[in-house]
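Action item from last meeting closed. Structure (311 res):
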């Protein structure tokens, strides 16, 4: 099999009302302000009475205007706050109970970098039920970089760099106060295989029932959640779009990987992608398959991501 990373590298791609002066004038004349609530008395002639009434009306109008402005500003603030709240997307997360499993090519038909099969243990965590969608990206980032915009808001966002994914995460965390992140490679495979079960694809051993890949995609992405989920209720871990994970890529990392919560190499030139895509063959949709892409360089229409969160 060609290495999936090599395949990836070759693929295409209120008008403001100012009444301050008048309000200050009203406050500078305490007689005018305070006498409006007192009975009219001790004034000589109708002129003075009329003037007094006019002054009272004027001051009352000023107070009403001030109250009106405060109401308008309060409403504007509430509307603005509602707008911010409405712009925060709902991210459905699945609880994944931690445990240990045999990570790597347990079926014997994978690439060298999927070997050796080795035991890995991960802590409890949450992972996105679906890949991040175009609508979710749009609501946070106010743009849509996807090639397949006509697929709709419920389709996975694509043409995403690893760095782009982290920009989205940082902004989403600011909006929500949560601590979303990318999954590690070990967490991703553990979740894809329904807590480390002996599954070739995420959800079973038949690619067609769980994945959009080159044999059934029609040459494009599809709305998330339209294929069968795995046993944890997670969709599109195999196929549709490749998914960035946290780790740098190391071709021999499995030979030196720690047993507990591996984080990948400390540095590298590539970052790991998992899951295959609409453009790749079924072999790349295998749960153990490791893709790689040069960081910050290739923006292609079958790379997306999903979120994770520590418990």
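Sequence:
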């Amino acid at each position: 099999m060609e290495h999936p990373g090599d395949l990836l590298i070759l693929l295409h791609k209120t008008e403001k009302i100012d009444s301050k002066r008048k309000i200050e004038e009203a406050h500078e004349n305490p007689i005018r302000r305070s006498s409006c609530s007192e009975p009219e008395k001790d004034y000589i002639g109708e002129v003075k009475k009329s003037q007094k009434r006019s002054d009272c009306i004027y001051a009352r109008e000023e107070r009403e205007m001030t109250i009106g402005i405060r109401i308008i500003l309060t409403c504007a603030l509430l509307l603005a706050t509602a707008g911010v709240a409405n712009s925060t997307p709902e991210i459905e997360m699945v609880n994944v109970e931690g445990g240990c499993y045999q990570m790597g090519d347990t079926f014997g038909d994978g690439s060298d970098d999927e070997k050796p099969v080795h035991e890995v243990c991960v802590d409890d965590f949450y992972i996105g039920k679906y890949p991040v969608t175009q609508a979710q990206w749009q609501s946070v980032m106010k743009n849509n970089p996807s090639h397949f915009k006509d697929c709709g808001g419920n389709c996975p966002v694509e043409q995403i760099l690893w760095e782009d994914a982290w920009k989205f995460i940082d902004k989403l965390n600011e909006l929500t106060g949560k601590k979303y992140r990318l999954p590690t490679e070990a967490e991703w495979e553990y979740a894809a295989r329904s807590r480390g079960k002996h599954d070739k694809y995420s959800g079973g051993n038949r690619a067609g029932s769980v994945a959009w890949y080159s044999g059934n995609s029609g040459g494009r992405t599809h709305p998330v959640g339209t294929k069968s989920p795995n046993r944890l209720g997670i969709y599109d871990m195999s196929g549709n779009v490749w998914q960035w994970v946290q780790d740098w890529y190391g071709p021999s990392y499995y030979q030196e990987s720690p047993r507990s919560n591996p984080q990948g190499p400390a540095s590298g030139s590539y970052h790991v992608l998992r899951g295959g895509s609409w453009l790749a063959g079924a072999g790349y949709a295998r749960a153990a398959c490791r893709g790689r892409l040069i960081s910050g360089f290739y923006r292609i229409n079958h790379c997306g991501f999903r979120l994770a969160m520590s418990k």
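Note appended to the action item: The longest helix spans residues 45-86.
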